[in-house]
Structures
1.
Amino acid sequence: KTDWTTDATAARRDAYYAASLTKFMPFREPLVFKKGQMQYLWDAEGRKYTDLLGMNLCISVGHSHPRVVAAAMEQAQELTHCTTMFYHPVPAHFAEELAATMPKGPNGDIEWVVHFTNSGSEAIDLAMTMARTATGNLDLLALRTAYHGPTAAAQSITGISGWRHPGMPGNVAFVPEPNQYRGIFGPGTQLYLDEIDRTIQSATTGRLAGMFIESVQGYGGIVEMPPGYLSGAAERVRAAGGLYIADEVQSGFGRTGDHMWAFEADGVIPDIVVMAKGIGNGFPLGAVVARKDVAAPMADKFMFHTYGANPTCCAAGRAVLQVIDEDKVQQNAKDVGGALLERLRDLKQRHPAIGDVRGRGLMLAIEMVKDRKTKEPDRDTTAAVFEACRDAGLIMSKSGPHQSVLRMVPPMCLSMQDVDNVADGLDAAFTAANG
Ligand code: PMP
C-alpha cells in the first residue's frame, strides 16, 4: 500500500534514492503531488496549485488531459509495448504526422524522417551520432549557457557547468550565448555570429559535425535567440561542413505562440530537430526528426532504443498533436502568454528587484538583479519569491546559471483568469520579499 504522507516519502527517498537523485529539490520543504488536472495540481493534503512549470515542460496540453489519457489507455490495454523490430501502425502514423509539422522549404521538397527514442538526451546523443556520421567530422559547437540533458554525450554539449560533470566526451567548443540582457557583447546579433567564425577557426579542426542550439534556452534562463542568429549560425556551421541541430525539447509544440517550432521565427530550416518532454504530455518519449538525406548514412550503423516507438507513448503523442490542432493550443499560448508578459512588464515597473522580463508565448521569465545598473544576479530574492509563490499556490522554477531567473512554462491550457491569479500572486510575493 502506498504511504502518501510527506514525512514517509521523504524518509524513503533519503534512504533509497542515490544522492545524485535525491538532492535535486528546489523547495525548502518537500512537496508531494497526488493529482493533476489540466493546469492545476493538488498535493497530498488536497491543496490546489497552478502549475507554471508543466512538470518541467512535460505537460504540454494539460495534466491528465482526458483525450491523451484515453488514447494511451486504449493502446496500453490492447498492446502496451511493441519493439521496433516488429511493425506497428501507431508509431508509423505518428512519424508521418510529426514529419508533416516540419517546414518543407522554398521548393516544398524537403523530406523528413523520424527516429523515436526514450528521452530527450537520448535523442541528443543520436543527433550527435547522426551528424558525425553524415558529415564525417567530429567537432561540435554549442552555446555556453546551453542545457541538453544528463547522458554523457548530452552533458558534453551542456555549457552550464553545474549540469556538466568532469570527464565528459570531448570535441566540443562553446560559443557565448547571444543573451540580449546580459550577453558579453550586449544586445545585437552580429558580434555573436562573428564569434562563431572565430571559434571555428581557433578552437576546432575547422571541419564541423554540427552545432546544437536550443531555439529558446530553457535552463539557461529563457534566453531567446535574437533575429538572424539561428540563420547566421546555420550558414557559418554549414560553410564548415557541419549541420544545424535545433533542440526543441522545451520550446517546441507551439509553446512560443507564433510557430509550432521556435526556430521557425528566424525563417531557418535545421538539418536535425530534437524533441521530447511535451511530445507525450507526460508519457516518456523523445524523437529525432531529420532530413531524410541526413539520416540515410545511419542505415549501416543502425540503432534503436528499447522503448522508442512504444505504441502507448506514441498513441499519447498522436493525441497531443490532435489536441494542439483542435483546441488551438498554439494560439492560446500566444494570447495568454502575451497577456502574462504584459502583466510581468507591469510588475517590473513596480519592483526594482526585477531586472528583466522576457520570453514568447508560454515560455516566460523574470530575472532578478541586486542592482539594475550592474545587473548583479540576485539569487536570494529569486529564492524568496519562489518560496512565497509556492505559499501562494504557484509552482514555478528557478533557472539560469545563477539561479536568478523565475521560469514560467505552464501547460498550454493556461487561461486568462490564471494570468490575473499568477500576476497578483507574483506581485504579493515580490512585496513580501521586499523586491
Ligand atoms: N534538451 C533540453 C533543452 C532539455 O531541457 C532537456 C531536459 N530538461 C533535454 C534536452 C534532455 O531531455 P531528457 O531529460 O528527456 O533526457
2.
Amino acid sequence: MSTTTQYNVIVVGGGLVGSLCALFMAKRGYQVSLYEYREDPRATEFARGRSINLALSNRARRALQEVGIEERILKCGIAMKGRYIHNINGKNKSILYDPRTRQCIYSVSRNYLNQELLQEVERHLNVRTYFNHKLINVDVDQGRLVFLQTKNNTTIETYGDLLIGADGAFSTVRRALQQTPLFNFSQTYIDHGYIEMNINSQSGRAMVPNHLHIWPRGEFMMIALPNLDYSWTVTLFMPFERFKELNSPDKVLDFFKKFFPDSVELLGKRQLVEDFANTKPSPLVSIKCGSYHVGENILIIGDAAHAMVPFYGQGMNAGFEDCLLLDSILEDCNDNFPVALKLFTESRREDAHAICDLAMYNYMEMRDLVTRPSYLIRKKFDDF
Ligand code: FAD
C-alpha cells in the first residue's frame, strides 16, 4: 500500500451513508472516489418511493457534528419533542420523549440531507464523484470493481486500497461477499408494507406541531412527520393482505373513515383515492450479516450491512454511526485497513443485530402497546 494521503478509497453508493462516509474518508486525507448509480440528486427532481423525510436522532447528530455540519442540518430540520397519539375515540394526547431534559428528534428531508452531504463532499479536492455509474461486478480476491456507465452503456474497471459498499439494502457489494466461504447472512421480509401520502401545507397547519404523529390501530398504524413548508409526510404501515382489500375508492374511503376519521379531511378524499390507485405498497426488509468485511480491504456499511424495518427510526442513524465508528477505528490503528476492518466487524456486529431486533419490536410498540397502560403491557409479555 501507498502512504496515507495516497490511499485510494472507493465508496459505492452516494445515498445518505455513502456520502457521509466519503466525507469522513476525505477528511482523513485519502483519495476518494464515490460511485453512485442514480443521477446526481442535485440536478434532478426528487424520486418518490423512499421516505421523503426521516427522524434524525443523537446517533446521527454525533457523526454530523464530527464532520462539522450538524448545525447546518438541524437548522433545516423540525424538532419533534414527542409522539402525538391519535386515538380512534378522538381523545388525542401528546407523550413527550423526555419531559425532564426536553431532548428531541428532528424531522429532516432525505433529499436535502443527501444534497448537503454531496455538496460538502465535493468541497474536498481529494474526492471525485461519479454519478450514473452502476456497480455490476465485484472480484473479491483481486479487489476489482466493474461499473456500468449508464449514460453510454460502457463499462469501466477500477481498484482501490479500500472498497466500501454503502449501496443499500440490496447491495451488490454484499452479494459478492455472500458468495465467499463462512459469510453468514439472513434476510427477513415482514408481512406488512407501506405507502406514503401527504397532508398539504394548508391543511398541515391544523396539525399539532413539533410531534411525530401516530395513529396506532393494533394490527396496523399510520404516522406523520412534519416538513418545513407545514406539509406532513404520512405513512401507512399495514399487512399486504389488507392493502389488497382496499381495491375501490369506496373501500378506501370507508376504511379511512372507520380507522382514521380525523385524517380524512387532512389528507383530502380525492387525494386519498388517487394515492391508493397509483401506489403499490412497498416491502420492508431486515438484514443481518455475520461479518461486515471480507479479506483485507472490502467492507459494507449502512443498509448494505444492516437494513432494518423503519419502526425505530434508526436505519440512517445507525448508518451514520457506522461512519463515525470506522473513522475512529482507522485513527486508532493508524490507517491499517486489514486490522481496522476486523475491528469494525467485531465492535459493530452485536449492536447492529440488536438495533435490527429493536426496530422489529418497536412496530408492536407503536401500532399497539403505545395505547395501553404499562401494567397491561407487562401482562402481555408475561403471557408470551
Ligand atoms: P440507501 O439510502 O439505500 O442508499 C444506497 C445508495 O446506493 C443509493 O443511492 C443507490 O442508488 C446506490 N446504489 C445501489 N446499488 C448500486 C450499485 N449497484 N452501484 C452504485 N450505486 C448503487 N432511518 C432513520 O434513521 N430514520 C427514519 O425516520 C427512517 N425512516 C424510514 C422510513 C421508511 C419508510 C424507510 C423505508 C426507511 C427509513 N429509514 C429511516 C431507513 C433509512 O432510509 C435507511 O437506513 C438509509 O436510507 C440507509 O442509507 P444507505 O445510504 O445505507 O442506503
